[in-house]
């Protein structure tokens, strides 16, 4: 597999694998967390388990490629025109949670304590990267909220500069609509000791304190 | 503290292929202070720099890591120090920083590989180099970086906050370039600038308070500097406004200043414009107008106040690295410096071109001469 070990290696040496396998490795190497080396290992693993793994995986991927689409209401990645959360009649229409990405939605769903609806922005505002409100699903969010009038919008965005600026932006837009917003608390981590926290974190925790 | 062995000290220093040093092993009895003399270019400062690399950052020269490996070998380098500190439970531990032949940086604590920041808590170091001699004459940016370095010793998050502030500011600058920027978006970014910027300023003002308190306790013969921080929101915070008020005022000023900032293509107010002003108190003279010797003394006074404030903060003084420390001082001021260092109870590593510069240093000081040979720098006992 390692072409440098072949006596005839060099730019003109024959490829050690057919184009199909080379293409598979090239595509696998583009996945997050995989590089050329781990892509070669994964491809070899798949090749050795052709019936048990490679064929079912190819089938699953073909089906997913055909079915996957962003939900037309919330933007979450799913396999139907309307995602399973938006289609669920048991969900609370009065609470709307705004996240940057589908991965954040999954993280909150793993917690299992939120029963409302979601809206996936597809990123956060960044002037430096050329991402404005129109590049995100912000117009859809505001239109949706103006119609559904939820009791509360939870802005569950990342605590980065861009995430926080996006939260400020949305909080103001919702204030104009007369809709209450909240952001996730920041402060003392679970199991954290106050003595070892910086003043900024302690100040944030103090401001977000609540009755027991 | 005077007289007792310092609670924080290097007890043994080993170097391998570091700059001019091919190899070195030096024992420092009971953590005594060290005075290194020798001609220019012999390798004195390299030894101080090696110690400075135990602290977070790029060391006292701000050098890039590929400069550390000794030429021509370029076979990796190592600095290994037996270090005593109150943060180390077993009294002392072997701290090691270095790079292998491929340039991969490694930090070790008693042989265990650790993140470099893990060495920062025990390896508290304060340094002063001739590069800072012109601090009061250089640009505000140099003074800002100097002050932020002092602040970072008390607030490890200071650097991260500065990055957050700058990111929000650059986003706002970019938005202001547009013909009709989204006002709500600008407001959101100004909110972030005000939040991160006020936290930055608050930490800087707190450093000023700590240093002023420490300077008041001092009785040494150094001309005292009256320090102040200029700029917004530093001035408001120094005048005693609550952080929330200072933050709100800063945010308001940013919103009002949009047309002006758009025309200038940058933010004209904020903590990125802070400056440090120093006045030689006894003469009511701005530091920039003082003599070279007076400026150096003001600088040393600030560094001593910082060391004293850190001693209070950590319950043990930092180790001081003072490069070419007494070059601009007369005999009287040199004696006062050594007395102040003795009062601090810290281990001090000093360099100077001639041995006579350290005549009035405490008798237990380890006096060594650095010489350059074909095999690299070598140490000779005085």
Termini gap of chain A: 62 Å
> Overall mean pLDDT score of chain A?
89
Alpha carbon gyration radius of chain A: 24 Å
Give helix and strand order of chain B, one letter per element, not per position: EEEHEEEEEHHHEHHHEEHEHEEE
Q: Give the distance, in angstroms, between the N- and C-terminal Cα atoms of chain B.
A: 27 Å
C-alpha geometry of chain B: globular
Question: Which term fits the overall shape of chain A?
Answer: globular
Measured by DSSP, the beta-strand proportion of chain B falls in: 15-25%
Please give the largest β-sheet of chain A.
4 strands, parallel
Overall CATH architecture of the domain at 90-190 in chain A? 3-Layer(aba) Sandwich
* Unreliable stretches of chain B: none
Q: Give me the count of strands of chain A.
A: 6
| C-alpha-based Rg of chain B, rounded | 23 Å
CATH topology of the domain at 90-190 in chain A: Dna Topoisomerase Vi A Subunit, Chain: A, domain 2
What would your notes on this structure say?
The complex is a heterodimer of chains A (212) and B (382). Chain A contains 8 helices and 6 strands; from the N terminus they run αααββαβαβαβαβα. The termini of chain A are far apart. Chain A has a domain at 90-190: 3-Layer(aba) Sandwich (Dna Topoisomerase Vi A Subunit, Chain: A, domain 2), CATH 3.40.1360.10. In chain A, strand 1 and strand 2 form a beta hairpin. The relative contact order of chain A is 0.07. Chain A has a 4-stranded parallel sheet with strand order 4-3-5-6. A two-stranded antiparallel sheet of chain A has the order 1-2. With 212 residues, chain A is α/β, with parallel strands linked by helices. Chain B contains 9 helices and 15 strands. Chain B has helices at 44-52, 140-152, 158-176, 183-217, 234-238, 243-256, 258-264, 292-314, 331-344, and strands at residues 9-18, 21-27, 34-37, 77-84, 92-99, 105-109, 112-114, 125-128, 225-230, 275-280, 285-286, 319-322, 348-352, 366-373, 376-381. The model of chain B has no long low-confidence stretch (mean pLDDT 92). At the A-B interface, helix 7 and helix 8 of A face helix 3 and helix 4 of B.
């Amino acid at each position: 597999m390692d072409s440098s070990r072949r006596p005839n290696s060099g730019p003109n040496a024959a490829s050690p694998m057919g184009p199909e396998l080379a293409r598979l490795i090239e595509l696998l190497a583009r996945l997050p967390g995989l590089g050329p080396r781990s892509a070669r290992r994964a491809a070899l693993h798949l090749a050795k388990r052709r019936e048990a793994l490679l064929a079912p995986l190819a089938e699953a991927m073909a089906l997913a490629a055909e079915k996957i689409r962003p939900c037309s209401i919330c933007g979450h990645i799913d396999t139907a025109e309307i995602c399973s959360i938006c289609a669920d009649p048991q969900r609370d229409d009065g609470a709307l949670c705004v996240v940057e990405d589908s991965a954040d939605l999954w993280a909150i769903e793993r917690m299992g304590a939120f029963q409302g609806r979601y809206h996936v922005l597809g990123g956060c505002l960044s002037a430096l990267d050329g991402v404005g409100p129109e590049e995100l699903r912000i117009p859809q969010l505001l239109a949706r909220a103006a119609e559904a009038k939820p009791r509360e919008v939870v802005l569950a965005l990342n605590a980065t500069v861009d995430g926080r600026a996006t939260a400020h932006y949305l909080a103001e837009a919702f204030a104009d609509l007369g809709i209450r917003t909240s952001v996730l608390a920041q402060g003392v981590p679970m199991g954290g000791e106050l003595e070892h926290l910086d003043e900024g974190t302690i100040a944030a925790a103090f401001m977000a304190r609540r009755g027991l | 503290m005077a007289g007792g062995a310092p609670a924080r000290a290097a007890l043994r220093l080993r170097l391998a292929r570091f700059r001019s040093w091919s190899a070195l092993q030096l024992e420092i009895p009971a953590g005594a202070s060290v005075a290194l003399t020798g001609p220019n270019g012999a390798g004195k400062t390299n030894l101080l720099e090696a110690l400075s690399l135990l602290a977070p950052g790029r060391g006292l020269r701000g050098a890039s890591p590929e400069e550390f490996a000794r030429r021509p070998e370029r076979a990796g380098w190592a600095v290994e120090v037996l270090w005593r500190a109150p943060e180390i439970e077993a009294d002392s531990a072997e701290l090691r920083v270095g790079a292998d032949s491929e340039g991969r940086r490694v930090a070790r604590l008693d042989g265990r590989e650790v993140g470099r920041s893990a060495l920062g808590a025990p390896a508290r170091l304060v340094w002063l180099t001739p590069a800072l001699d012109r601090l009061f004459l250089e640009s505000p940016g140099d003074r800002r970086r100097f002050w932020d370095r002092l602040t970072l010793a008390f607030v490890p998050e200071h650097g991260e906050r500065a990055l957050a502030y700058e990111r929000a500011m650059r986003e706002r600058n970019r938005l202001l370039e547009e013909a009709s920027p989204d006002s709500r978006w600008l407001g959101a970014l100004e909110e972030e600038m005000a939040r991160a910027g006020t936290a930055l300023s608050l930490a800087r003002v707190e450093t000023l308070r700590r240093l002023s308190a420490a300077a008041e306790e001092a009785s040494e013969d150094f001309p005292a500097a009256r320090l102040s921080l200029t700029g917004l929101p530093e001035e408001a915070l120094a005048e005693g406004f609550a952080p929330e008020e200072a933050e709100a005022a800063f945010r308001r000023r940013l919103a009002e200043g949009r047309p002006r900032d758009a025309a200038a293509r940058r933010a004209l107010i904020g903590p990125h414009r802070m400056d440090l002003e120093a006045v030689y108190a006894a003469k009511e003279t701005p530091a920039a107008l003082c003599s070279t010797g007076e400026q150096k003394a003001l600088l040393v006074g600030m560094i001593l106040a910082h060391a004293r404030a850190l001693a209070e903060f950590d319950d043990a003084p930092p180790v001081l690295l003072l490069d070419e420390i007494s070059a601009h001082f007369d005999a009287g001021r040199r004696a006062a410096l050594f007395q102040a260092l003795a009062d601090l109870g810290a281990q001090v590593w000093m360099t100077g071109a001639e041995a006579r510069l350290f005549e009035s240093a405490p008798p237990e000081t380890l006096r060594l001469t650095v010489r350059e040979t074909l095999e690299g720098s070598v140490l000779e006992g005085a």
